[in-house]
Amino acid sequence: MRTTIVFCAGVLLLPLLAHAASQTEQDNAMIDGTGRAYVGNVSVNQAAGNQQQQSNARALANGTNSHASTYQNQQLRLINPDASLDASTSIKGNSFQGSGVVGVNQGAGLGNQQINALRISASNSTSHPESLDDSTLAQNVAVTRNSGSPVAMPGQRIVNTDDQAFAGSVGVVQVNQSAGVGNQSYNNLSIRVAGGL
Hints:
The protein has 197 residues and is mainly beta. Helix content is 11%, strand content 50%.
């Protein structure tokens, strides 16, 4: 009797295992018509998939000898990532048509890192503009094998931004869109105004 049960279970599971192995994972992130007529600061992080790291950092300073700073550090270790996935990101329609500061991070897939950073300082000091060093832009994705495959991998990556999205926006627009495995993108804007506001 036990032999029959094990045999039947094996027969029933084989088609299910074959079906699961033939499917490609699909990660889709979509924004449609969001943020219309925004005013001020809008920050959006949207991710589909696993192990995504996203941040929108804003720093404002006003006054004598004021200084605005941001520090972003993202670290991620991917062990034998499966690159055979379908990943797509899209921003559709009249999304994010407005004025002010908008930061959008949109990722699909596995292990993508995205940062939008903005620093604005208004000071009465006579200091000079700062340079931006690599430590400020620190991101690290450690892939334990060569990310390039000698054989074509199944899976499709699509990144799409509608021509109406962000149209007519006034101010600062920071956008990162990534689809796939281990992508890194960073937008940084630093403004220093002498004389204060």
